[in-house]
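Problem: given the chain below (329 residues), write out its structure.
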Amino acid sequence: MRIVIATPFYPPQLGVLATYAAGLEQAFKKAGHEAIVVPFSRGLPPGLQHLVYFLRVFLALRGAGFVLALDTWSVGMPAFFAARLRGTPFAVRIGGDFLWESYIGRTKEPIRLSDFYTKERDFTLKERLIFQGTRTILHGARALFFNTRFQIGLWQPIYGFDGTKAHVLENFYPTHEVSEPSHGRVFVSAGRHIALKNYAELERAFARVKEKHPDIDLDERLLPPPEHLARIRKSHAIIIPSLSEVSSNTAIDAVAAGKPFIMTDDTGTKERLAACGLFVDTRSEAALAQAIESVLESETYERLAAATRAFSFTHSWDDIAREVLKAMK
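Solution.
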């Protein structure tokens, strides 16, 4: 079967979705299918790049069994309409909430994802289009792949999609590595310094703890993936300060390396990794500082580290491909 993967990113570009597209491509091919990856059209004016992308997906869909979009907006919308025109089944993987991310990026309000839809918001025209576009593809898709039950529970009452189309398709979980001793008491927290990532609150909390424990350090450098993973293996623990996380790949990487983590309690990550980290309200400087101090205590640290070492669940690209194919039969 010919399978088209619509993705915002693809190697040599970096990022989770580039890795996801490449991993699925190889898994589909390994299973005997023809996998065609269509990366997003970049370097063109807004609007034109979506039109060009629509045409590229439309051409790729000739004879395809289905198309899988890896987001709901940049590639999701053009791929959805191309699939509709071709009469090709459409599926979408939902790993985040673009409307929430856009709203936080514009307003800088520290609203957690689980609170975002609890009242009406003053949306811009673009944000209203994102909402309506997302609703359209959720209702029109053959299958919806969420990586946590957490997000299904948040979205279904708002978008009103058919729950029988929603599948939990967990993230890639690698095999466990041999745990490496920490090289000093270094906490790793590397990501984009944007409002929803909440780094200002983390930096204030860390400075507060460092006054009591001057030997600790916070490494926020952005590094290429191999160097970043090597740094995690040498670290004391990982901090993910985001306001909310649907499912944290960083937490998965930490556990694979045998390292505890600190992150928001507004997350679906707890569904699989509850024993391996501390979950707090990251909007609170005091809560973050207390969690950092807890991870510096030997008893708490060893409890969390032991849980990461005992964690044995894996979810390969082959597993993910099989689950997609089963849902699309």
